[in-house]
Write a structure and sequence with these properties.
54% helix, 13 helices, Rossmann fold, binds tryptophan, 2 domains, mainly alpha, Tyrosyl-Transfer RNA Synthetase, two-stranded parallel sheet, 6% strand
Length: 336
Amino acid sequence: MRIVSGIQPTGNLHLGNYLGAIRNWVRMQDEHGAGECLYFLADLHAISQPHQPAELASNTREMVAALVACGIDPERSVLFNQAQVSEHAQLQWLLNGTARMGWLNRMTQWKDKAGKNREGASVALFTYPVLQAADVLLYQATHVPVGEDQKQHLELARDIAQKFNNDFGAGEEVFTLPEPIIPAEAARIMSLRDGSAKMSKSDPSDMSRINLTDDADTIMTKVKKAKTDPEPLPSDKGGLDGRPEAANLVGIYAAMAGTSQAAVLAEFGGKGFGAFKPALGELLVESLAPINARFIELRQDRPALDAILRQGAAKARALAGPTLDRAYRALGLVRG
Ligand code: TRP
């Protein structure tokens, strides 16, 4: 098995990132052998939209600190940023010859992000999914853990791999077709102020999210002030219908405790938020405190972070080299 996944270095990691993606990465790392998991910061993807260079650099380092604090072990997983592994950009160019305009035009993320201003969107935003395909095909990924919103990009990666193999493989598979892994209890964590909006670092209200940098008091305050309704908790999941804020808090509890929403409601059904919120706050504080402590310490150790990325990049390059070379040759590009 070869597991590959990436995350954009957005900075300011929050509970949504942790429960939605990172915790799952840690679990896969712990279940698989050393070297089977590759995790990277998609910094090359980040330049597809307007950005501040200084911010991108600091977000990239901050994200490494967060990943390590959350449990990604750079000795067991290959942890790196794309920008230090030029093979990603090289393979993207080769795959640009295989990807079709029509395929990219159908990508919903492209349509959403470009909006009405397609003429003004960057070419990088359009070819973003081709770079993403290169990210995984470069390492012969068999499995790619992603959120539901990335499923279409993964299907595109499979289409590109298949067409390339067909057109240029001469009967051999140059690329492995990757399978998405979308976590069953896909923890979709919503804003604490609005149960219908995703928890997001770009929400102007800091009360809407729990940051990995929040201390115990801040976490407790945010949970206690979270928006709810006046009803007590229901005793089964059906009772959460039409109560997005209640559903979100129950979902957070279940995800954090590693149990089901039904089990949480079996315990708290009939109780009010006055009882549930302190319990949720305590659970969050207890689980996040060790992560918070490591994160705060590591994020200021720039030499350590840069060393992690450098070593990860060296391992990634060694794994990528043979596949990239095969892709060049398959296309008839002379490599001495
Ligand atoms: N596009 C992904 C996201 O926004 C991030 C990403 C980039 C990625 N390259 C990848 C995810 C390769 C999985 C595999 O979440």
